[in-house]
Structure formats: C-alpha cells, structure tokens
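User: Here's a chain of 162 residues. Predict its fold as tokens.
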Amino acid sequence: MYKTETKIKLLFSNAFILLFCITASSQNKNNYMQLTASNTGFSFTNVSSIETQQVNTNAFQIAVNSKASNTFSILAKVSSSTSSTGTPLPASMLAVRLNSVSPAVTANYNIITLSTTDQLLQQVTTNNNSSTFNYDLLSGPVGYNYAPGTYNLTILFTMTQP
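Assistant: Prediction complete.
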C-alpha cells in the first residue's frame, strides 16, 4: 500500500484566526498528492463571527495523480491541537467542503467535519489522469466557551490506495 501525507498547520485566536498553511507534496513512483493553501485567515472580531460558522472559500487545493489505473482515497484528520490557554479547540471545530473539481469527476460535495481519526474526503479512480480538488474550510461557531488566546490545529492529509 502506498501512503503519502501532507500537513496544514492552523493558528486560532478568539480575536483573529490565522491558518498557517504549507504548500507541500508527497509522492512515490506511481502516485502524488500536492497541497496548496491560500485564503486561510479567520477573523473573530464581533459577536456574530463567534456565534456563526465562518467559511473560507477555496482555502486549499489538493492535486492528485496516479500513473496507473488505480482507486485511491484522500483522507484528512486533525493530528494535533494546542493552545496558549491550556484548553485546545476540539478537532470537530473544523470542517471541509468540496467547492469544485477539475476535470469533472464523481466527487463528494458534502460537508465533512474533521476529527482526530481519518475522514474520507474523496475516493477517486484514475487512469493516468490528474484531478484538482478545491476545498472550502469551515470553522466554528466558536461560541463563548473558549478564552481569548492562540489555538493551533494541524490537519494531516493522506492519500492511500485501498
């Protein structure tokens, strides 16, 4: 089984949420996954932003390719969560939603709430083709249960062949 992993680090604060994301790629001789992150800052500056879910449209892009006819899975999980207050945000505070895919393939457009275990984002069958998935990142609502501070979450993306 081939397995590749890519991480995004997220920095949270009650007044301002900034997502530190990296552009990375993982590969072997037959498969690759490349992650590009942008539009990754959340800002909680008023009551409405704390009480409602925030959405960053096209926050990151996952490009995958397989050089053979393969079915593989793209998974994501929150691999760590820390905070300056001693109370980290739960992994379920984050969710992802597919915004678009190119070229058009059958894909899962449902909102997927993240957790500390792998969540299936997509299962793709390729025949030496590449696909690019653009995802929205959803946060919160944070609510009033968390003190102002800095909150860090790391999302781990994995591509596997079943």
